[in-house]
Design a protein that fits this description.
The chain has four domains: 125 residues, NusB-like (N-utilizing Substance Protein B Homolog, Chain A), CATH 1.10.940.10; 34 residues, no CATH class; 56 residues, Sun protein, domain 3 (Alpha-Beta Plaits, 2-Layer Sandwich), CATH 3.30.70.1170; 203 residues, Rossmann fold. 47% of the residues lie in helices and 15% in strands. It has 20 helices and twelve strands. The radius of gyration is 24 Å and the shape is globular. It binds S-adenosylmethionine. S-adenosylmethionine (SAM) binds next to helix 14 and strand 6. It catalyses: cytidine(967) in 16S rRNA + S-adenosyl-L-methionine = 5-methylcytidine(967) in 16S rRNA + S-adenosyl-L-homocysteine + H(+).
Length: 454
């Protein structure tokens, strides 16, 4: 592909991003952000670029299934990416006329390739326009069928169907291709949700208070990250499910709390808000550059109780001392399979061999957290995945190895009160938020310090 970019052209910018994701394993969300800032894309076209980039990635396997019968002979990989993003517009975007999608694709093919490439692109897209796309009923294997229909790797569909059954798996995979809601968390130390709603409305945004988490606002129009309310520290951008683990911690002002995997600080700042900025909160993360993000957000929000540190949570006792904290949060590194809606590349990059390693890290972090906790203190374990090995599997392994820890029911906001026996698995299709897992444990009173390490 020639490097002859078409500045300001949305489809050309989408091709650059999708090609880098395919070819250099770049992260689509980071690249999209950079491209929106630097590719001369007008404010009017920002939404369209986001939609084409994420939509094409979300439906990639389906698009390839549709393209296959029309691709006689090999095309260069970048041309296939161009065909995918053009077909995506033709099939999924009502507001883009098919003619426009095809003409743009031909122009890009000419500029980035040559007239021969343009003619192939024109031929394939016009043939699909005339002949239509094939049905999923041609696929007899049920796992393969859901995989192609929803564009998730077959191993993942198989794994989920073993964990949750076929129906739930299909529901989840279909949900993962929807546009996620835009939600923000109100900084309740500084304002009420009603006051922040007024601020946002006065800036021309539209939002409503969520019916589930009271401090969560669902923004239906405008960009909250660019608002004055954000800049002045009245809101944080956060998914609604991500707001739940902090409820499970049952916090009160004045406690001593540790957030063991804290960056970029979404939950640490929420903890500070629930503690009304009184007490002590230590926020640890492995990476210096990520810890900086916690500091920046805490400063923007005006929270004074957060003390950040760089380090390995698996050596937390050495740093902080045993049996010190009233509450410990382990919002652990995980496969991220609950956030596919926001980061569609995850479903193509994760590998089945990742899960054992992740569970070991999660288990080690929990083991350390148990030692850091005071008797009667509460430990909350959360992940943004739906994988049961990392969730229930890790939690049960932890309980088995630590008889001094007991599972307690997960405390949740009033509107979400569901009967739970200590483990809560939220699916992306439950209320439109990310998939999340939450477990809560209490250290038995008078229990000896637990030094189990395996
Ligand atoms: C799911 S993210 C945490 C998100 C964060 N709690 C929030 O709400 O913004 C997991 C974090 O764990 C960190 N991490 C991974 N291994 C770690 C370890 N051994 N000790 C401490 N932090 C670790 C990663 O750098 C990553 O920032």
């Amino acid at each position: 592909m020639k490097n002859k970019k078409l500045p300001g052209n949305v489809r050309d910018a989408a091709l650059s991003i999708l090609w880098a994701v395919e070819n250099k394993q770049a992260y689509s969300n980071l690249l999209l952000h950079k491209t929106l800032e630097g590719h001369g894309i007008s404010a009017k076209n920002r939404g369209l670029l986001t939609e084409i980039t994420y939509g094409t990635l979300q439906h990639q396997m389906t698009l390839d299934y549709y393209l296959e019968p029309y691709l006689k002979g090999k095309v260069e990989p970048w041309v296939k990416v161009l065909l995918r993003l053009s077909l995506y517009q033709m099939l999924y975007l009502d507001r883009v006329p098919e003619r426009a999608a095809i003409n743009e694709a031909v122009e890009i093919a000419k500029k980035r390739g040559h007239s021969g490439v343009a003619s192939v692109v024109n031929g394939v897209l016009r043939s699909i326009q005339r002949g239509g796309v094939r049905s999923f009923n041609e696929i007899s294997d049920p796992v393969e069928k859901i995989a192609i229909e929803t564009s998730h790797p077959a191993w993942l569909i198989k794994r989920w169907s073993e964990q949750y059954g076929m129906e739930k798996t299909r529901e989840m995979a279909l949900e993962n291709n929807k546009i996620p809601p835009q939600t923000v968390r109100v900084n309740t130390v500084r304002a009420t949700p009603a006051e922040v709603l007024e601020m946002l409305e006065s800036e021309g945004l539209e939002a409503v208070q969520s019916e589930l988490v009271p401090e969560c606002l669902v923004v239906t129009k405008g960009q909250p990250a660019r608002s004055a309310a954000f800049e002045k520290g009245f809101i944080t951008i956060q998914d609604e499910s991500s707001m739940l683990p902090v409820y499970a911690m049952q916090l009160t002002p004045g406690m001593e709390v540790l957030d063991l995997c804290a960056a970029p600080g979404g939950k640490s700042t929420h903890i500070a808000e629930k503690m009304e900025d009184q007490g002590a909160l230590y926020s640890l993360d492995l990476h210096q550059h990520k810890v900086k993000l916690i500091d920046e957000t805490a400063t923007r929000l005006g929270h004074s109780i957060i003390e950040t540190a760089v380090g390995d949570g698996r050596q937390g006792v050495e740093r902080f001392g045993a049996e010190r904290f009233d509450r410990v949060l382990v919002d652990a590194p995980c496969s991220g399979l609950g956030v596919i809606k926001r980061k569609p590349d995850i479903k193509y990059t994760k590998k089945e061999e990742d899960f054992d390693r992740l569970q070991d890290i999660q288990f080690d972090l929990l083991t350390q957290a148990a030692q850091l906790l005071k008797p009667e203190g509460i430990l909350v374990y959360s992940t943004c995945t739906v994988d049961s090995q990392e969730n229930r599997g890790t939690a049960e392994r932890f309980l088995k190895a630590h008889p001094n820890m007991e599972k307690i029911s997960v405390s949740l906001p009033e509107a979400l009160k569901m009967k739970n026996t200590g483990f809560v698995q939220i699916f992306p299709q439950d209320f439109g938020g990310d998939g999340f897992f939450i477990a809560a444990f209490r250290k038995r009173p008078g229990s000896a310090q637990d030094l189990t390490n395996s």
